[in-house]
């Protein structure tokens, strides 16, 4: 099995853990079809959870997965070396980047 190196972007504390806290709570109101609601209720019951617990845990898990998909990637050793080389020795800016950097931002017009 080939070795794989993982590269992780800056560590971050913005991925909340599923722990009880004293933070203020809010609400989210959803409109869903009866069949979808029943599906969620059935799955929650199988796990011994309330609908709310099931939905919050499922949504949190999906949110963390989406965020991690943007932060964690794996490379083989050759790809890892090429990636580090590109970070350490980037190519010079091309004409399109130079033109973009000369543009006045919309908020300053």
Topology summary:
Layout: E1 5-8, H1 34-46, H2 51-69, E2 72-75, H3 77-88, H4 95-102
Describe, in plain words, how this protein is organized in 3D:
The chain is mainly alpha-helical and 109 residues long. It has a domain at 32-103. It contains four helices and two strands; from the N terminus they run E-H-H-E-H-H. It has helices at residues 34-46, 51-69, 77-88, 95-102, and strands at 5-8, 72-75. The longest helix has 19 residues, at 51-69. It is elongated, with a radius of gyration of 23 Å. The N and C termini lie far apart (56 Å). The model is unreliable at 6-11 (pLDDT under 50). Residues 1-26 are annotated as: Disordered. InterPro entries: Ribbon_hlx_hlx, TacA_1-like. Keywords: DNA-binding, Repressor, Toxin-antitoxin system, Transcription, Transcription regulation.
Q: How many strands, which pairing sense, and closed or not: the largest β-sheet?
A: 2 strands, antiparallel
Ends distance: 56 Å
Number of E-state strands: 2
Q: Tally the helices: what do you get?
A: 4
H-E string:
EHHEHH
Mean pLDDT across residues: 85
In the predicted model, the low-confidence regions spanning at least 5 consecutive residues are: 6-11
Q: Give the % helix.
A: 40-55%
Shape: elongated
GO molecular function: DNA binding
InterPro entries: Ribbon_hlx_hlx, TacA_1-like
Keywords: DNA-binding, Repressor, Toxin-antitoxin system, Transcription, Transcription regulation
Pfam families: TacA1
């Amino acid at each position: 099995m080939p070795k794989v190196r993982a590269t992780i972007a800056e560590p971050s504390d913005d991925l909340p853990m599923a722990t009880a806290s004293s933070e203020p709570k809010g609400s989210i109101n959803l409109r869903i079809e009866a069949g979808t609601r029943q599906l969620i209720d059935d799955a929650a019951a199988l796990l011994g959870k309330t609908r709310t617990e099931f939905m919050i845990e499922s949504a949190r898990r999906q949110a963390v997965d989406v965020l991690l998909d943007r932060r964690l990637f794996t490379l083989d050793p050759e790809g890892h070396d090429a990636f580090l080389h590109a970070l350490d020795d980037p190519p010079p800016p091309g004409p399109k980047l130079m033109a973009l950097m000369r543009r006045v931002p919309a908020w300053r017009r």
